[in-house]
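Box 3.1 A note on notation
Throughout this textbook, protein chains are presented in two layers. The first layer is the amino acid sequence; the second is a token string describing backbone geometry. Keep the layers aligned when reading.
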Amino acid sequence: MRENNAPLGVFDSGLGGLTIVREILKQLPQESVLYFADTAHVPYGSRDPEELRGFAFQITAYLVKRQCKMIIIACNTSTALAYDFLRSNFNVPLVGVIEPGVSRALQVTANGKIGIIGTLATIQSGVYQKKLKAVAEEVVALSCPPFVELVEKGKLRGLETEEIVAGCLAPLQAREIDTLILGCTHYPFLRESITRFLGPKVKIVDPAEETVRQTARLLKANSLSAGNQKPRYSYFSSKNAYDFKIKGSAFLGRDLGTVKEIYL
């Protein structure tokens, strides 16, 4: 039996999953969080799918061992390639980031032309395209490999960032999309540059917001919502823990405290 005041387990390849933590702080401030950043293996986007499923299995096993009551896969690549695999191997509620993003995009699009940007592995998996094409009029999928590196290096603004964003997103300009899904949890950190390039007519969908709404619904449905407690936040990194602490604190606008380094 899981403890209501046990933490939510959240994992990603690096800093990107903090967009999920940011939403948890807004929407579920009573919930504790245990965050694992697999910085030893970032970026995930160019790695072999079987290798990525192995990473996801090891991290989930660790979070379950730490008594997490629910696991949020705060990584589009891991969700695309490992969600079903993890569900078949662990008896713990799981939340991915793909379904929430698709659902929100279909709600807000006016012309049915939806763009999706993500890592190479996410785009090649075809998961987003398959789910969107069932309803959308047109789907334009684009991989943007440099974006994760920009975020991990803390290069969220500046001329170099603007030029890289423009170069990656240029193919979208002629496709008349009115909605764009940020199909990697790192990408919301570049939202300002992305919006500036595409213009105000393109609605930007950050799956983090809807993912945490789904998490709230699942917590309630499983009677796992935290009671009146002071939430605890714990952060772990598989490499360069101090660097993660400095950048993560800046991204969240609050001190992460001690980030423990643990290699699984």
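Residues 109 and 179 are 6 Å apart (CA to CA). Residues 8-96+209-261 form a domain with the Rossmann fold fold (CATH 3.40.50.1860).
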